């Protein structure tokens, strides 16, 4: 399991469930073991529609995820994400794509989230937190910024076990 470090080294801004990366503190040592609870097929509600994520189990020092948002039976956007072990810690990377798979970010750019803290059932990246509620439920907390205003948003997911959508 990953090393812990004092909360005094982490700026919490105004949010309850996300932390901000501190360059002086750096990232703690960690492996993908601390995020094995994320592996699976998940569904929830957000942005006026259904959100879906599929996370693979660790393989080759990484986990990958496909995300999509569907509103009124239309895909609004996708994300491709990776959780990777690098330099004895973890990094979360993602890229956004419109419904037609045209990327939002430039070709060689990703949105990167550096690891801040690991505790049992909760893994904090810079502005992005994974929380295990139970075997069949997780929360993802993300700090979103729009027009200079930051907001912490909770995505509540339930494990999808096949058949039709949970929603």
The total tally of domains equals 1
Number of H/I helices: 0
Helix content: under 10%
User: What proportion strand?
Assistant: over 45%
Low-confidence stretches: 1-12
CATH topology: Lipocalin
**Largest beta sheet: strand ordering:** 1-2-3-4-5-6-7-8-9-10
Main beta sheet, described? 10 strands, antiparallel, barrel
Q: How would you classify the helix and strand content by structural class? A: mainly beta
* CATH architecture annotation name: Beta Barrel
**Shape call:** globular
Domain DUF6265: 36-143
Protein name: DUF6265 domain-containing protein
Organism: Maribellus luteus
Pfam families: DUF6265 (PF19780)
Give a structural overview.
The chain has 167 residues and is mainly beta. It is 0% helix and 53% strand. The chain has no helices and ten strands. It has a ten-stranded antiparallel barrel. It is globular, with a radius of gyration of 16 Å. It holds the Pfam family DUF6265. Residues 36-143 form the DUF6265 domain.
Give the SSE layout.
Blueprint: E1 40-46, E2 49-55, E3 62-71, E4 74-86, E5 89-98, E6 111-119, E7 122-125, E8 128-134, E9 137-146, E10 149-159
Antiparallel strand pairs: 1-2, 1-10, 2-3, 3-4, 4-5, 5-6, 6-7, 7-8, 8-9, 9-10
Short structural summary:
This protein has 167 residues and is an all-beta fold. It is 0% helix and 53% strand. It has one domain: Lipocalin (Beta Barrel).
